[in-house]
Amino acid sequence: MQEITFIIQALGLAVVLTGVGELFGARLPLLRKVALPGAVLGGLLGLGLSAVELPATKDVFNVLGEFPVLFINVVFACLLLGKRVDGFSKVWQRARPHVIIGHVTAWGQYVVGLALVLFILMPFTGINELAGPTIAIGFQGGHGTAAGLAANFQALDFPEGKTIAYAIATLGIVFGTIGGPLLANLLSRRHPVDPPEAGTSDASEGPEPENFSVLTGKLTMHLALIAVVIALAWLLLQSFQWFEKALRGGDATTYFTQYIPLFSVVLISGFAAQLILQSFDGDRFFDRQLFNTISSFGLDMVIVGALATLSLSVMKEYWVAITVLALGGLLWNLAVFFLLGPRLFPKPWYPYALGDLGGGTATTASGLLLIRVADPDQRTHARQSYSEKQPFYEPIMGGGLVTAMALPLVAILGAWSCLLITAVILSLWIAYGLIRASKG
Questions:
Q1: DSSP helix/strand/coil, 210
Q2: How far apart are alpha carbons 237 and 158 in whole angstroms?
Q3: 128, 414 contact by CB (below 8 A)
Q4: Using alpha carbons only, how large is the chain's radius of gyration in Å?
Q5: Is the separation of the CB atoms in 172 and 142 below 8 Å?
């Protein structure tokens, strides 16, 4: 009973902190200009509260620290549910430039991170080589992915990596909400968007929901589907682990599948559930906007839980590594934006490329925010094509399977081997992008 009380208190604290953060962000002029999410401000308030170390709050904060691992599954379950998938060929044609620039950004973050660790941070600070993937984990995956990989950091004897990834994710959000809009406004003034293109529409949010007045428990029905998706993902992951143990025998000390986080499998099961529902028109009973609302709540809980329970001692110890990695990742993202964006996207190129810059530095939502700043009247297809990128990209890179397996692969193969592998893959994606750019 006492544990349930702590859970309720932790949930209440997270909601109150988020609400206070939203109020501060809306009422204080400086914070209103910065436009930091309420969950980020609330999480920082919670971090200050946790530093007081009141005996009454210790157990509550222990529970709050588990929120990111739990609620990230809700976020990933909602990512594709209710979002109707068009024919592969049509969607691929629109999404292909975003997929290319997304992969170049992501693989480059692994290359930059591993190179910085091997050539600078390990010789001068002695940091663990597992810090190499933290740029991609923090920028591409965000707080949720960092939280989902906390067990991997712990199992691989680098628990500090979670805090480093959290800190990089926080800096990414700061850039996405401060520097991103400034860049978008600057480009918009220098290169105004032309009149609307013919047929511009945002088809990314799926079909219009039916009249739900005849249905009861609309929210409950959506939560039930999310629970089914997560449960199926858990069963699937258990099956993977059982199969590997049966294949390799019981003498193995470690198993590859034990490092697969649940949220990456949830993304796959959610996509499969959407395809199944869509096949018999069952998705018409679900409202994409409601899934977005549930996902937003889950993400708020992830961010508040992650930031409020950051280890200040680890941040103090690793502040040099955090700064070097975050700056290295940001410079890489900007280089991809300015060098590949104009070549891959139609004119005006920047509303399209801003989506990938925001998504590759902060969150998918940050990408949509930057597109809205640069193209508020939706005069381009940027919002639609960026949204259609996600099924081709998120299950693999943006907190997907590659992100999930990065840590164990570095631990097994070593940072030098992983640097070589990622550099080769990055070169292939750059070559493919330049070939596509030359064809127009």
A1: coil
A2: 24
A3: no
A4: 21
A5: yes
What whole-number distance in Å separates Cα of residue 393 and Cα of residue 78?
16
pLDDT along the chain (440 residues), means of 10: 77 86 76 67 81 70 80 81 73 84 93 96 92 90 75 86 86 77 80 57 44 61 92 90 78 65 79 86 84 84 79 80 93 94 87 87 72 76 76 72 85 93 95 84
Report the C-alpha gap between 128 and 112 in whole angstroms: 16
- Degrees, nearest 5: CA angle 400-403-407: 145
Parse the chain into domains and list their residue ranges. 1-64, 86-192+240-265+311-440
Question: Given this model, what pLDDT does residue 230 score?
Answer: 93
Q: For residue 313, what are the CA distances in angstroms to 123, 164, 243, 374?
A: 22, 11, 41, 39
Closest by CA position to 183, among listed 378, 390, 334, 392: 334
The H-or-E segment that residue 427 falls in is helix 415-439
The CA-based dihedral angle spanning residues 310, 316, 322, 323, taken in that order and rounded to the nearest 10 degrees: 130
CA distances from 346 to 209, 252, 425, 440 (A): 32, 52, 25, 9
d(CA 70, CA 63): 11
Alpha-carbon gap, residue 416 to 338, rounded angstroms: 29
Query: Tokens 């994606």 belong to which residue?
Result: 429
Judge whether 79 and 390 are in contact, CB under 8 Å. yes
User: What tokens appear for 339 in the block?
Assistant: 């060098």
- Residue 330 CB partners (closer than 8 Å, separation 6+): 171, 172, 175, 361
